[in-house]
Write a structure and sequence with these properties.
Layout (H helix, E strand, L loop, with lengths): L9 E3 L1 H19 L3 H17 L5 H14 L7 E3 L1 H23 L2 H21 L3 H11 L1
Antiparallel strand pairs: 1-2
Amino acid sequence: MNPEASTESTVDVNVPRFNQAIVALLTALGFVFGQPWLVVATFAILAVSWAAGPTIAPLTQLYTRVVRPRVQPDGPTEFEPAAPPRFAQLIGAVFLGGASFALVAGWETFGWALTLVVTALATLAAATRICIGCILYERAVIR
């Protein structure tokens, strides 16, 4: 497969890990510094990424244009199906959408709890490649 080949059906295996690391970082910073706008911004990023698809998602573009040339100058060598990480993005967007609404509505405990769920799952996926949203997708599609 062409090293630069990325379609709507496959993505470089490093792209979802990068996305998850950024989501974990932004939501953790939002919680630690009490900045709900970081949660809202992360929700917007995930929602746009899910709607736009893997080839034009904002964090994917950041990775492919800025990060990958420095860490993988020859391009990606391994690809994975795009649907499971995209489903995980949808779940993250739903949780962060709920968290954003709760934080704006003044239900801070609930909003931060939802945020921390996303932070924990994104950290797990970025650090170990264990993506709970991807596992849920695969179980739902197989059954």
